[in-house]
Specification:
Helix content: 40-55%
Bound molecules: heme C
Radius of gyration: 27 Å
Oligomer: single chain
Strand order of the largest sheet: 1-5
Distance between the termini: 49 Å
Number of strands: 12
Length: 449
């Protein structure tokens, strides 16, 4: 009591002194005050600011195509393949069944109750492209934007970040459920979807090859893969003949991680600007003089991609919000019962000490704090993909939520089908001498992250 009483008195006295000081200051500085600009407005309160950014970023991530429909619809005419001849387009059209088969997902929350009930009752024609058009109108196809004419016909389509970096929880039916932003869509066959485009001329012109070659490259990608470097270096295949595409990575668990992408191209806002401009073909501004290196990036250097400037910029103003949203996406927790707890506890000790994993994958981010890039030789791998990046290295992958993207395998190209194979690789590479029991404990720990 005594203490708080004294403290209160102290504070009151301090307050009184401050008032006197303020008054003196005002009296003393009358002329200065009258000439000074108005005091700057307060910055927004941090939590309110963060919330507003994250909310805006979620909208951008899910629904914003940055005007890229001018490419996917306008140039490639993809919307006409979706409509099909029966609806004014070309070919058989894309029914919901076909869309689901190439890995596109449907957001059940975007469907009105009546549509949901009709779906559940089997009264919706999933073989009709007209149904796909309705789903597009409802903004229910994850990551695809439909632009419609006044008359209601499809004018164009675009893509958003969510087409690759979101999936759904299948709560309603396989491929139909609630959005799970940040999870890579390892069912999505981007190559098959792009191949549907009636006009691949913009792609063949850029790459300087014919349609057959482009289709061969796209056909080799398969589900869950995309090649973000193809438009820069034109390399469709690795020296061993396999596709040069990489797995779509998670966009969660990235807070606190320095370099991003498998080969450490740059920060999150760097890569977001890169992808929105150069891959999605949105309208914006992108600078990277590293792409002027014609030996490494012949196509990007010729097209001056590192100096991209659209007439209207629909990307740059959204980068802060998009960044905030990605940082807000935590990695999913491993479901209870999906791993052996006692073994995982033993595996953790092995990860931290004998297996030397934590010398790069340091918790809690599970990447190196600081410069998280390593030479291919350090992890006993080839340098093909590393050399397609300005860095020449591989970035230590953050390991949270590993089992939620098990499909397609591990490492940038999915060369290891299971976590067991990854551990065996390191056991040989580092000469760790782990027993079979230690290896399986380590795997249980990885599954728990
Ligand atoms: C067509 C599929 C596709 C689309 C669309 C796409 N991405 Fe990606 N994203 C990828 C692939 C593939 C990579 C890996 C690239 C690499 O490492 O070379 C990647 C990498 C990333 C990474 C790095 C992740 C890490 O582990 O560091 C982030 C962040 C990211 N994308 C965010 C976005 C955002 C934001 C958008 C929308 C502006 C977007 N992506 C659009 C396929 C896509
Ligand atoms: C020298 C640094 C370094 C050490 C030590 C290291 N890693 Fe890695 N790790 C990497 C890099 C770099 C990659 C990315 C490789 C790629 O994608 O080609 C990676 C990728 C992985 C992946 C694949 C993640 C994914 O989503 O594809 C797993 C799992 C993994 N490491 C586990 C381990 C384990 C377990 C150990 C210890 C036995 C270990 N790492 C030791 C650098 C390291």
């Amino acid at each position: 009591m005594l203490r708080s009483g004294r403290l209160g008195k102290l504070l009151r006295n301090a307050g009184a002194m401050a008032v006197v000081a303020l008054a003196g200051g005002v009296l003393f500085n009358v002329s200065a005050v009258s000439q000074a600009p108005r005091p700057a407005a307060q910055p927004p309160r941090p939590m309110a600011y963060a919330n507003a950014l994250v909310n805006q970023g979620r909208k951008v991530f899910r629904y914003d195509d940055f005007g890229d429909d001018a490419f996917w619809g306008g140039a490639l005419q993809l919307h006409r393949a979706i409509e099909g001849a029966a609806n004014g387009g070309v070919g058989p059209g894309v029914s919901p069944k076909t869309a689901l088969a190439v890995g596109l997902k449907v957001d059940v929350d975007a469907l009105p109750g009546a549509v949901r009930r009709a779906l559940a009752a089997g009264k919706v024609d999933l073989n009709s492209p007209a149904t796909t058009l309705t789903l597009l109108k409802l903004k229910a196809v994850v990551g695809l934007t439909g632009h419609f004419n006044r008359s209601g016909t499809l004018q164009s389509v675009g893509i958003t970040c969510a087409v690759c970096h979101s999936t759904v929880n299948d709560s309603f039916a396989p491929g139909i459920g609630r959005r799970l932003d940040g999870r890579p869509n390892r069912d999505l066959n981007v190559g098959a979807i792009v191949s549907l485009a009636p006009n691949l001329k913009p792609v063949t012109d850029l790459l300087g090859v014919d349609v057959t070659t482009v289709k061969k490259v796209l056909g080799a990608w398969g589900p869950g893969k995309f090649d973000a470097e193809l438009f820069l270096d034109g390399k469709g295949f690795r020296p061993d003949g396999r596709t040069a595409a990489t797995l779509i990575p998670p966009a969660y668990g990235l807070a606190g991680v320095n370099l991003h992408t498998y080969t450490g191209w740059g920060s999150i806002p760097y890569w977001n600007a890169f992808v929105a401009n150069l891959e999605m073909h949105g309208q914006g501004t992108f600078t990277d003089e590293r792409l002027d290196n014609a030996a490494k990036f012949p196509i990007a250097a010729r097209a001056r991609m590192g100096h991209t400037r659209s007439q209207v910029d629909r990307i740059s103003s959204k980068l802060p919000a998009l960044h905030a949203y990605q940082l807000s996406l935590g990695a999913p927790r491993a479901p209870a019962g999906s791993f052996n707890r006692a073994a995982a506890r033993r595996g953790r000790a092995i990860f931290d000490t004998k297996a030397k994993c934590a010398s790069c994958h340091l918790p809690p981010t599970f990447t190196d704090p600081g410069w998280n890039l390593h030479s291919p030789a350090q992890i006993c791998t080839d340098d093909f993909q590393a050399q397609r990046s300005p860095t020449g290295g591989y970035r230590t992958t953050p390991l949270r939520g590993l089992t939620s993207h098990a499909k397609g395998g591990y490492y940038h190209d999915g060369r290891f089908l299971t976590l067991e194979q990854v551990v065996q690789h390191y056991n040989g590479c580092f000469g760790l001498g782990l027993t079979a029991g230690e290896q399986s404990d380590l795997v249980e720990y990885l599954k728990s992250l």
